[in-house]
Request: fold
Amino acid sequence: MKTRIEEYLKEVENFKAEKIEHLEDFRIKFLSKKGLVPALFADFKNVDPSERKEMGQLINELKNSVQNKIASLKENFDSSSDNKKGSMDLSLPVNAPMGSRHPLSIVRNEIIEIFSRIGFTVSEGPEIEDDFHNFTALNFPADHPARDMQDTFFIEKDPDIALRTHTSSVQVRVMENTQPPIRTISPGRVFRNEAISARAHCIFHQVEGLYVDTDVSFADLKQTLFYFAMELFGEETKTRFRPSYFPFTEPSAEMDVSCNICGGKGCNVCKYTGWVEILGCGMVDPNVLESCKIDSKKYTGFAFGMGVERITMLKYQINDLRLFFENDLKFLEQFKSSY
Ligand code: PHE
Reply:
């Protein structure tokens, strides 16, 4: 019996449990009713009285060592599962899908980046505007159609409060608070009461720019926007300016770039003209400078404004503007960028 017990003691000492279930098997093997320890106690009756003391002590030693072993291994399992809860396993593979920026954000950031390289700062302003900042300071005549209910989402009447129809309102705020030189762009959301279609939406995004200083000329305007077009669409890009009209600029123009899809040869994006319009621009009307308390005899300036949706559609050959607002992952996942 002595050798049997000594073998069991060795077995207990060497026992290792990889899983908590193995610990339970171990307990059953030694301590359950039909286990080895009760069997030893049963055999104890047959032990010679001269050996009883020693055998009794050995069986008790075995029983204790089994119990101690179970207790200490159990503790290990408990504390390692506590650790798992409290800390991260950095070696686990990551299988969460990576997000991507919205195409409008990519292009907006790229536009900001291009202008910031030549010294333009970024200005932001409120989306809910008063009549002065959205229209009056920008030289809109009282009966101008853009003030009409058809174009503008009014929130309150007398005094008029509306959702801004362009971010030129931000430039008015900049001019009110800063004396020239001013070189700033204002990206942001704008709102117009238009029917939603493949080419128009009632919410869209603009980046407008303003440069006011002494001796700013139309040549500065052309050169700045030519640089911008080449940076955005590539070095081969050509630009052309067509006369246009805006209440807040005089003279005014619209800028076309050579179609980046067919390279100017003619395709359905440029309607076989080889050119696509990307922005409006012009020299800031002296009335606008005066409304913002800037001396129009001392300073001149140029301004421009572009729609981010339109430029994104050209850059990525997207033919329906509504895709930008549907949040369809199959569409959005195609855009990966460092911007
Ligand atoms: N504010 C004009 C628009 O929303 C764009 C523009 C800005 C045109 C500056 C000329 C100069 O359409």
About this structure: DSSP finds eleven helices and ten strands in the chain.
